[in-house]
Write a structure and sequence with these properties.
The complex is a heterodimer of chains A (476) and B (179). Helices cover 39% and strands 16% of the residues of chain A. Chain A is an alpha+beta fold. With 179 residues, chain B is mainly alpha-helical. Helices cover 78% and strands 0% of the residues of chain B. The chains are: A alpha+beta (476), B mainly alpha (179). At the A-B interface, helix 1, helix 12 and helix 14 of A face helix 1, helix 2, helix 3, helix 5 and helix 6 of B.
Chain lengths: 476, 179
């Protein structure tokens, strides 16, 4: 018994040691001496958007009535109007590109809208895409008939506010390439806006994208990170160089981002991380350079979930993702304004510095993004099973060809009763089994010392002997 | 390679028990990536360290069961074959416990290798199918080849033909069951 307890304790100790992870730390003084490109009034932009359009669920379906209600169009029109007023152009009516999509929970085809505006440079076909999804999950039903609620301030009102702020800053700037501002719809339903945007491109259009800059929950978490995929791409290095040169408040990518061991749709990677859960991932899957700017705290985990802010509950996908709660988390309006504007100005600065850098175009063009997988999953499966099947066939062929010239013989086995062949062993084994059955009282009435779990009783030496004999013959 | 034919029941049983325990741990190590995936798939139901321990143990137990069945069935098949290698006294050259001990030792080494390869595959962003399907298949083949080599050394040149004939079916059993 002591041995068993010792083995169990040892097993637990080994497992706990095996499971102990390492913790990342991020410099707390990050961005203290930041050389900002400029300061922006991010807070007002955010407040104006989310308080006016709290319900932005894309392609929403009321399941009971089977009627399609889309709550995102008004928000899309607001963004469209803002970009239009800034003087940007669009080829779509009201700047909205509609698309349809299907979700598993509904048989109906749903409608979503992308808002697409362009800062055109007639001398080039190269472009930078700046995007953020504007839809939220306020009308999603999680339990019972209760909707999540919340206005999606953090997910992703902050992204839209950042998109509009960058759009405002680029109005009077001359660039060597086009800039396309895209507010994506139906991201929460499965990145359908980004998928539609990509689906309408040919190979040339994709090649012409220098970089896709995505803002998703970009401000409000503890640290802002920049993610460009699972490899160390040149364009990500370039962006981080801009950060280090200007002491901006952008954190280095943590080592333990691979925190969710599930395979995402469209990917064959064994894991995904929080940074992949956005429209930018669709661009990556199409070999388009991207950077996703998002804010969280990878040095703090709660179970398997990355925390947005250390010591606070996550608000994404909860009713707490609303403007009032979001502001209160920072300790009131003044503190929220100060924190959010500072963090947003750092993000704004890295974008502006990068876009205006004279080496931007050449660096982007020299950064080759490749499919992140080493090999295609289907090919691996076919190769694996073919290998196994062919090996089995080879073994069978060898068996039949070698068998012809091999003499069969009687095989004896050493037992405590001497050498026996298979038949004799079976007879002896059967006899012993029968004897054993006769001795045992299966109801336990006449043999109280018999251990029903099969643990040998030291007094019952007869049973022990028989057990040992059985083991010798192969107890299987 | 006397270990293949251990006749001392007490010693062989103790060694077998130790190798079984080691194999169980080695299989947990081998399946850490799969266990992690299970952990995140089940997510809400089994959170935290306790959930992880449960999932690691379950993954290890299932793998152990397959390996145990593979070893037992293959020996059973070898033992019933009319072509099993025998010595000059017509006695089979493998005792059950000896066979299982060597099988377990080889499986332990392969499992440690596969567990370590999982780390490498994980950090070079290998695909899920590579880790879950191809690697176990290759490991199974490697496991079998090493085991057959050791058996071949044990029986000697003169009985190689008998060994390969008698081990054909056990080999197929092992290839299918060793996942």
């Amino acid at each position: 018994m002591k041995k068993k307890i010792l083995v169990f304790a040892l097993t637990l100790c080994v497992l706990i040691v095996m499971l102990t992870g390492c913790i990342n730390s991020v410099d707390a003084n990050l961005g203290a001496n930041a050389k900002l490109y400029g300061e922006i009034d991010f807070y007002s932009e955010l407040e104006a958007f989310v308080t006016q359009y709290p319900r932005r669920t894309s392609g929403y379906v009321e399941t009971k009535e089977h009627q399609r209600i889309d709550y995102s169009k008004n928000a899309a029109l607001y963004i469209s109007n803002e970009l239009k007023e800034l003087g940007y152009t669009t080829t779509y009516e009201n700047g909205l590109k509609s698309f349809s999509f299907n979700v598993e929970s509904s048989s109906q085809s749903l409608i979503g809208y992308n808002v697409i505006y362009k800062k055109d440079n007639p001398n080039t076909t190269k472009k930078v895409v700046i995007g953020a999804h504007y839809d939220n999950v306020s009308d999603y039903i999680l339990t019972g008939n209760e909707k999540i609620g919340g206005d999606g301030t953090y997910n992703n009102g902050v992204g839209v506010a950042m998109l509009l702020q960058v759009a405002r800053a680029l109005v009077d700037v001359t660039l060597d390439y086009d800039v396309e501002f895209v507010a994506f719809g139906a991201e929460e339903a499965g990145n359908y806006g980004a998928k539609d945007y990509i689906a309408n491109m040919n190979a040339n259009d994709k090649d012409n994208i220098l970089l896709m800059i995505n803002f998703d929950r970009v401000v409000g978490g503890d640290y802002v990170y920049m993610y460009s995929g699972e490899k160390n791409y040149k364009h990500n290095e370039f962006l981080y160089d801009v950060v280090y040169e200007n002491d901006l408040m952008i954190a280095p990518l943590p080592h333990n981002m691979k925190n969710v061991m599930l395979t995402l749709e469209g990917s064959d990677l064994i894991y995904f991380n929080q940074a992949m859960l956005s429209d930018s991932n669709v661009f990556g899957q199409n070999n388009i350079r991207y950077v996703n700017l998002f804010s969280m705290n990878f040095s703090d985990m709660s179970g398997s979930t990355v925390l947005e802010s250390s010591g606070k509950d996550n608000i994404s996908y909860t009713k707490n993702d609303n403007f009032d709660y979001f502001v209160a988390r920072f300790g009131g309006e003044d503190k929220a304004k100060e924190y959010l504007n500072k963090q947003a100005s750092n993000v704004y600065s890295v974008v502006m510095y990068s876009l205006l850098d004279e080496n931007f175009v050449s660096t982007m063009q020299s950064s080759v993004i490749t499919n992140e997988l080493m090999l295609n999953g289907k090919i691996i499966s076919i190769v694996s099973y073919s290998l196994l099947a062919s090996l089995i066939v080879i073994i069978l062929v060898l068996y039949f060809s070698l068998k012809k010239g091999t003499k069969s013989h009687k095989v004896l086995i050493d037992t405590p009763y001497g050498k026996m062949d298979l038949e004799t062993r079976q007879i002896v084994s059967n006899n012993l089994d029968n004897e054993k059955k006769n001795v045992e009282d299966i109801f336990g009435l006449g043999n109280s010392e018999k251990d029903i779990f099969g643990m040998d009783n030291e007094n019952n030496s007869n049973n022990n002997e028989k057990k040992n004999e059985n083991d010798i013959f192969g107890d299987f | 390679m006397k270990i293949f034919r251990l006749q001392n029941e007490k010693i062989s049983k103790n060694i077998l028990m130790i190798t079984r325990l080691c194999l169980f741990f080695a299989l947990i190590y081998r399946g850490w990536l799969l266990a992690e995936m299970q952990f995140y798939t089940l997510g809400g139901m089994l959170q935290g360290t306790f959930g992880r321990v449960i999932i690691y143990l379950t993954t290890g137990l299932i793998s152990y069961l397959f390996f145990h069945l593979s070893a037992s069935f293959s020996f059973n098949s070898l033992f019933r074959s009319k072509y099993s290698p025998i010595d000059e006294n017509n006695v089979m050259m493998f005792s059950r416990n000896g066979y299982l001990i060597v099988f377990n030792i080889v499986a332990i080494c392969t499992s440690i290798l596969v567990g370590s390869l999982n780390f490498i595959a994980f950090y070079v962003h290998a695909s899920t199918t590579l880790i879950i399907i191809l690697l176990p298949v290759l490991a199974g083949i490697f496991n079998l080849i090493i085991f057959l080599l050791l058996m071949a050394i044990h029986v000697g040149k003169n009985r190689l033909r008998e060994l390969f004939v008698s081990m054909s079916i056990p080999s197929i059993i092992m290839l299918i069951l060793m996942r």
